[in-house]
Write a structure and sequence with these properties.
Length: 112
């Protein structure tokens, strides 16, 4: 089983990639806080995405596969209705409290 990468490994890998980028002449641009990467005049992203623009793709009929699945299903024995067993009343432990809510003792009680 492959050992999952720890956060420290991911950080070290990211740091090394950043240093390699800078050594090759890359430059990091500092962006001030509060500046968005989205232009204020652009429409919302969800309005730019167009769904269902492709024509529907015809489906390939596979009757032999469906027939095999149906045949396997018919061979399976059906389960009958499982009767629910009635539960016999079992004694249960009840705690007796005093007037101030403090437990006094435990007694066994049979419910009807």
């Amino acid at each position: 089983m492959k050992k999952p990468e720890s956060k420290a490994d991911v950080r070290a890998q990211l740091q090394e990639e950043t240093e390699r980028f800078l050594r090759r002449g890359g430059e990091v641009e500092n962006i001030p806080r509060g500046v968005s990467g989205k232009n204020p005049g652009d429409p919302p992203v969800f309005l730019n995405r167009r769904l269902f623009i492709d024509p529907p793709v015809p489906r390939t009929p596979i009757p032999e596969v469906v027939a095999a699945i149906e045949a396997r299903r018919r061979l399976k024995p059906r389960r009958g209705a499982v009767r629910k067993r009635s539960r016999l009343p079992q004694p249960r432990r009840k705690i007796i409290y005093d007037d101030f809510g403090e437990p006094l003792r435990k007694v066994w009680v049979e419910d009807d």
